[in-house]
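Please, structure for the following, as tokens.
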Amino acid sequence: MRLLSILARVGLVFLGAVIISAVSADVIWEDSSDEVLTTSDLASALFGDWALPLMALGFLMAMAMVGAAYLVRDERLINLEWELNGGEKQ
């Protein structure tokens, strides 16, 4: 388990280095575009080309929220009795 944790951290550092080197490369920023992008172009790209990745990301985030809600839930007996009885002693 410890080896897997170390490998995950090394992988994240490697991925960060690759992203930084790709973004900071001169080739990307050399040619400027004369085309002006509009919000319509952005919407077309998001809901056309990127529809499936956005849906996958939304699904993963929904799973994370359900998991967080499940983990936060308190199932001690006294709390369950409080929910069932409304705080009244029987």
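The CA atoms of residues 1 and 36 lie 50 Å apart. Residues 50-90 form one domain.
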